[in-house]
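User: Let's play a game. I give you a shape written as tokens, and you guess the letters that built it. Ready? Here's round one.
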């Protein structure tokens, strides 16, 4: 089973590396930033994401207790969920186009995108990445992967709420209606207007 587990881990790592390469290349040519969140706000989600990423892919012996025994079906399910999540995030990135930014920003001539995955959830990149992390954690089956997954969900919730405030300020007429109709992160759930916090 060790050789099989190594294969699954390498497959998941290859998926994440392919995603990272696409993400880096797609970052070129975005619109000029008009408004950016303060550094403190950015660090509030960026640092937890870095720590969680290190936990997910690093070796943390004191957090490596197994939550379930490795099995082919959990590993293949994890690989499939990771691939689907990364694919969903890339689909969202394509639809967002030149409006994309790694930080919470408003671009010059920013557009409110509601097509493709943005018709299913308001933050499909986060939805996809959370699904991919959950798939990676499922394959790992360790405490550290589960904790990393929870940290990533919390960090993306924080960042999504910050983006919501920016979008409401930028699109005061259309964003409240959009957020009433489209859920924040989980497709096909009843949307509820998320008040800025």
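Assistant: Ready! My guess for every position:
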């Amino acid at each position: 089973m060790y050789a099989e587990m190594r294969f699954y881990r390498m497959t998941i790592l290859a998926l994440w590396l392919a995603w990272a390469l696409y993400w880096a290349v797609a970052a070129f040519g975005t619109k000029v930033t008009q408004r950016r969140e303060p550094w403190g706000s950015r660090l509030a989600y960026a640092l937890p994401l870095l720590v969680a990423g290190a936990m997910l892919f690093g070796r943390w012996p004191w957090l490596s207790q197994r939550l379930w025994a490795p099995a082919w079906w959990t590993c293949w399910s994890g690989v499939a969920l990771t691939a689907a999540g990364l694919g969903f995030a890339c689909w969202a990135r394509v639809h967002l186009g030149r409006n994309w930014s790694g930080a919470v920003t408003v671009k010059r001539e920013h557009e409110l995108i509601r097509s493709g995955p943005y018709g299913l959830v308001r933050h499909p990149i986060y939805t996809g990445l959370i699904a991919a992390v959950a798939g990676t954690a499922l394959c790992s089956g360790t405490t550290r992967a589960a904790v990393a997954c929870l940290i990533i969900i919390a960090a993306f919730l924080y960042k999504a709420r910050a983006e919501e405030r920016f979008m409401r300020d930028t699109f005061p007429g259309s964003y409240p209606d959009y957020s009433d109709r489209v859920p924040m992160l989980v497709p096909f759930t009843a949307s509820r207007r998320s008040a800025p916090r």
